[in-house]
Amino acid sequence: MGIKGKVDRMVVMACEDCKERNYTTTKNKKNIKERLELNKYCPKCKRHTKHKETK
To answer: Is the whole model's pTM more than 0.85, yes or no?
Structure first.
C-alpha cells in the first residue's frame, strides 16, 4: 500500500535456494527499474542466501 503521489511500492523477497518468501520491503520504482537482489538470512536454510524480488 502506498500513499497517493508516492512511487514507493511493497515488494516480496524470496530465497533463491528454498524459494521461501521471507521478507517484504519497499522500493522506488522510478529510480530502480530492475528487480532487487539482496543477501539476507533465511530461517529455513539457517544461513545467509541471496533473496530476489518476486511478483
So the answer is: no
